[in-house]
Every structure is written in structure tokens, then in C-alpha cells.
Design a protein that fits this description.
372 residues; single chain; alpha/beta; Rossmann fold
Amino acid sequence: MRALFKKVARSIAGREIDQLRRTADDAAASREIIARLDRELGTLLRGTNSAAAPEVPSNPLLDDRFSQLNHELVMLRREMQILARTLTLPAPELWDQGTRVKPASAPPMGVLPNSTLCRQSEMETDWYAFWAYRMAHTPRYHRKLWEFVFIAQVLYERGQLAPGKHGLGFGVGKEPLAALFASYGAAVTGTDMPYEGAVEAGWATHNQHAAGKAQMRYPTVCSEELFETNVAFETFDMTQTPGPYRDLDFCWSSCALEHLGSIDAGLTFIERSIDCLKPGGVAVHTTEFNLTSNDETIESGGTVLFRKRDFEAVVARLEAAGHHVAPLDLRPGAQPVERYVDMAPYRDEPHLRLALLGYATTSMGLIVTRKR
């Protein structure tokens, strides 16, 4: 059995890496090969670490050889990743100084009518640059910045960032959105999971958790006076949504709902978040989108990857309940920078798509308006 693992691993790696070299000039083909190889090697690694009963009695010599095989599989994966990064990274002049687009004097209206994927074309607009600078960021090719910009632009053009509006953020961590929205006069409550849970999940140790209002403070984004007046913080478990929250004008989450344990839990959260809104209120959520497959995916665990069919299912339920969902536009872009699939350890830029748990993934933004 162990010899078979080694033979299969070498066969997979040798065959696919040779093919990758031959098709390095075709980023789309390379991306498919990379994702498939990573999944197959990952399957082998999980197999070697399986708790299933061994086919032969354990002995020190076999155990040592088995550990060596596992190490070789890990090395094969690392070598494949290095090769893939080298062969597919776009020319530096396309991305190494950010988008190099001058910001608009004010955001336009009507530029985000659809629920959509993170795309290079949107990053090269003046409104993307506007919001990036408003959040004290240089406009660059990074999907997390795209998520922040997407949420801000969606709420702005739907009239939600204004005095008298009340909003709720889920799993806010240390993102600048609460401060940004407060700077426009909206009253916002940021929420995050209890500290003990954040420590257990690793969010607190990786500096991605808000334990209080201080973590949402960005003086370059929002004045102290407006921040103190318009921003509040509360501890809240997203799986208990809607909880005490009702009759709000808007709510949002940025790459949080994929960490609720399962595909079903994430979709349920989306539906229940609508219960927090008043009629005509707007919910906007960003999360992981599986670019590799509409069938195979990661359905449970610390991070799940949503497929096209998962969004189609939740949209059907939301519309059946009378809510309006901005049409799904799930066409992946094909420009040079966005065709690059980043691999761990991830780059600061470009980072629109990444290899995650054996799949190519990017960010997706969903927009829902509660029925009137």
C-alpha cells in the first residue's frame, strides 16, 4: 500500500509538472493543472495520515518508511508550488506599482448592479481608487481590498452611507469599514465572536479579531468625534443571527461566513441576516467562491468554499421569500493579473485568486435587498 502511494505520487507529480512546463504560456491551462495536482497530492497526503486500520502489522521499519513517504509527498507539493508560482506570475510591470489609476473626486452611481466576482477590471477604475484611498490604502491588486471597496460602493450607491442610517457588521475583525461608514454619518455596530472562541479558532493570535471598539478605530479614515458618536461594538456569534438585531438599514460581512463550519451554515446565515433589516434594507456579504468546480468543494470545516450552485440555491430561496437579489454575474475575468493563482505563502500582490485547500478560489460579493 505504501509503495503504491509513492508510485502514484511520483507519477502524478512527474506527469503534471511536465505538462505544466509545456503549457506555461497558457495561464488558464496551467491553473487547471496546478489545482488538479494539488488536489491529488492532497488526497494522497490525507490517505497517508488516515486513521484507517493498516493492511499490515505495524513495525518500526515500515513506520519509518511510511514517514519518509509522507515527507516526500510534502516536498513534491512544495516543489510543484514553487514551479507554478515561477511559471505563472505575470510580468511585474503589470502589477508591481499597484493599479496606477487616479481616484475619482466622488464615487459614481450605478456601477455595481450585480452580485459578482472579484475582477481586475474593477480594480482599474477611478472609484476603486477612491475607496482605497479613503481607507488609507494604495490601490492594488488584492482581493481583500476589493471586498472592502465592493461593500462600500454597494452601500454608497444604494443610499445607505448617510446620517440617519443604521448598519450592522458581522465578524468585523480589524477591518476599516465601520470607521469608513461612520465618517459618512451612519451609525454602525460592529460585532465579532467571543474572545475565547477567537483564540481557539486562531483569529486572535493572528491579529484578525476585534475584542472591542478600539480595534475598529482608524483616525485617518474617521475623525475621533464621529467615531465615538457613530460606532459601537458588541460580541455576537454569527450562527445565532439575527439575535437581537432588527429594523436596520443595512448589514455587511467581509469573508466571515465561510468560517461558520459548513456550506449550509453559511447560506443559513445569509438568509437570517435579512431578518435584521427593515423593509428595503440592504445586506452585502463577501465570501469564498470555488473557481475550480461546481461539484467538488470543501463543504465543512474551518473554511468552506461556495460553488455557483450554492449561490443559485440560496438566491432561489431568498427570491421565493420575496426579497430582491442583485443578479449573479459569476463570469471569471481573463486579464493577465487575475489569471494568476497565488499559492501559500501568499503574496501581498497580485492576489486576486489563490490556491486554497486544493482549489482555485476568489472573492464573491452578494447583494440582497429585503422585500418592502
